[in-house]
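Hi R.,

Here's the chain you asked about this morning:
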Amino acid sequence: MTVRHEGVRWWFALLALVGCAVCVLCVVALSGAGHYFGLSSWAGIALVVVGALFPLGGLGFLYWVDDGRSEDSFLVKVLCFVAYSAVLGLAAVSYTGAEAWAFEQRGRWTEATVVGYSPPRVVPGDPPTKVRASCALETAEGERVRPRLPEGRGCRDGVRHGSRLDVLYDPRGLLAPRATEPMDHGVTVPVLGGVATLSGFLGCVALAWRWETLRVRSARRTAARRGRESAAG
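And here is the predicted structure, written out as tokens:
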């Protein structure tokens, strides 16, 4: 009996490609949701962690299906390492880049007037809490800019009541205003997403090829053993 290597089935390759693409899109959506929707820093970081851990579910499923059969497959390990490294970078870049995208969609530049200044202070407690400086701003039309301008975004030393600052703000009040352009990652997100998708897809295909190779070897050994048993009998 001849046992042939059937290669990788097209439906498995298509399923792997779609699965990797969906994982990458989920990472981008979850990691970017914090800044885009103006969530708290802790909520945004939590979504980044969830997004970064999301593809681990797929890797865990493949490991469960593989059941240790491909432990000696160096190529599969390298491709999975590359894919997940790209996913971690994608999660971090999506988190910081989402703010730039949100400001690009709805942000406005204005010459704002400082109508209130809160200096940095330490709130007593156990442990003491350090509160950074912040500025209350108002546009030339008399509209209050919300939320307040944080210290790290332009409310610096020397800014006092009546000072004028050019700031980029969100009319919906979901994003903290800033006095500088947000960091634009340009093609970083699609490049990292492409690397994660391609390496993950190739890892799945290499894994399936490895499974088929092991199946063929096992079938051939079984056929050879039965042939010897028949000849001896």
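One quick note: The longest strand covers residues 108-118.

Cheers,
M.
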